[in-house]
């Protein structure tokens, strides 16, 4: 009887060890399954050359490639891109349909109060567009000239700042919601004198719409006029503080390892990345 009891106890002990091991294995398995990858929707354009656009049915572009490179290294996230009309991109953030907006965005006071911003990924490459007869090449030549911009853009803040700081050299600013192509045509038809716009997308629209009689120049006195210096950013839903921190950390890595410079040279044929102090 004593031997039988001992054998029974031994058998129960082994069974208990096996059960504990099984439970431990199950716990480990459960732990791994809870390692969640967060899906992030990026609202973007498919026609903002060279920032984000569709070519032969595939998305590409400077900002698109930056986010793809970031996504590859940000293991806790998966970026999914969804194309919207330009006017609906920020509305996708507002409606909770996206967490990041990418479309060559500048920073404005109003946007800063409503959204979060990434580190800048590019120093704005802006040019003055005017008729070949006017051929405006300097910011100092804009005094008394008429331009037209959409409300709520960084260009609006820029001209307001200029007019406030230079009351004797004010620029006549009109606001409208006309697309950039229509505003470029308005220069050619004499409705306005100039536009200060992102160089590559505007030049692309001039080619697409066969707008004639225009010239563009990066202002020769740009470095003397701080109001006209711009940067491009990704915009985030204002609840995405962790995503903003993680994305900024990755953008800093891409700056330090040369990826941002390589992509700038690929798409702009020159390095237009911000200085190191912008990644702090």
Structure overview:
The protein has 280 residues and is α+β, with helices and mostly antiparallel strands. 40% of the residues lie in helices and 22% in strands. The chain has helices spanning 2-33, 62-73, 89-94, 109-114, 154-165, 180-188, 199-208, 241-256, 259-268, and strands at 38-44, 47-48, 52-55, 58-60, 77-83, 100-105, 116-117, 122-123, 126-131, 146-149, 172-175, 195-198, 214-217, 231-236. The strands form 4 sheets. Strands 1, 5, 6, 7, 8 and 14 form a 6-stranded mixed sheet that branches. Strands 2-3-4 form a 3-stranded antiparallel sheet.
Major beta sheet summary: 6 strands, mixed
H and E string: HEEEEHEHEHEEEEHEHEHEEHH
Radius of gyration: 27 Å
In quaternary terms, these chains amount to: single chain
How much strand content do the residues show? 15-25%
Pick out the low-confidence regions: 1-34
Name the structural class. Answer: alpha+beta
Helix proportion range: 40-55%
**Count of DSSP E strands?**
14
CA-based shape: globular
Distance between the ends:
77 Å
Number of helices: 9
Kindly report the average pLDDT value.
88
